[in-house]
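Standup notes
- HV: blocked on the assembly model, inputs below
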Amino acid sequence: MLQSIEQYINELDLKLKGLPKDEREHHLAEIRDHLLERMEEGDPEARVVQSFMAPDKMSEEILQEYRQRNAQTFEHPNYWFVLAAISVIAPFGALALPIIQENYYAGPQFAVLLQLLIGSVALFGYFRKKLNEERVAILKKMGRLMIPILALPFGFFSFSIIRTEEWSSFNFIYLLLYLLVWLIYYISLRKVYQSSIA
Amino acid sequence: MNTFNDKWNTQLRKGTFELAILLLLKRKPMYGYEITKHLQEESTFPIADGSIYPILKRMSTNQWVYSYKEEHEGRSRKYYDVTDLGGKVLEARWEEFTNVYAFLDQLKK
């Protein structure tokens, strides 16, 4: 049986993991204030918590409202999130092309970099506080996809050496830069994932 | 007290809570706990403490109410107020409600 406001809030927090983080925090803050106001009127903390709607029922009603709301949207609720995640990961495939081309063509690469920039702003900016259980699971899968993508730049590098029978300094430097950028993004994705499950 | 049909009573309550909240907020902006207290004191229908929050969220999504925060004794309180759309919904629902009541009252005679 719940005895304190913090116990109630912690239990409700666990049950509301299906909500985006910012929405979940708003609900918890409002409910915490409600419970504290009741306590300030003289009711003992345990009675305040036990006479309040149980965390199971409260979370069920809040999540039902959230699901009904999402059912009315035109796109799937996670559509833009998935698009943002793809826009961060997919460019790493195209960014490996200069290695096999042995040259950097700014025109086509500009579009790729633009996609990466927009995806980064969306994923690490807008969606950072809007992660729910489903989006965290998508983030984990996307992060894991980044590892096999590394086969591309290394494969292109090897192929280039086999084809030209010589070591290209452009390819080598580009490969190092690619790896540096890849590492920054991989660590960033991992940090976002770890902060969301904390 | 309802010993006849809990479902009817539950449905009737659910249907009128939003109307009751809109009527309260039409008087003045209120925060969640304040709305609950008024409903519990003035209403003939018991409302479970806390049940107001999913309702307020739904009404916010429907843009019938909007919220804003105000500092009160070191805490940030979330106040709700009726939007123009919420005002129109209130008028329409109140008219519907009085029509239904008048009809039933007529049948009773």
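- HV (later): unblocked. The interface with chain A takes residues 31-33, 36, 48-51, 53-54, 57-58, 61, 75-78 of chain B (CB under 8 Å). Chain B has four helices and three strands.
- Next: hand off to the docking folks.
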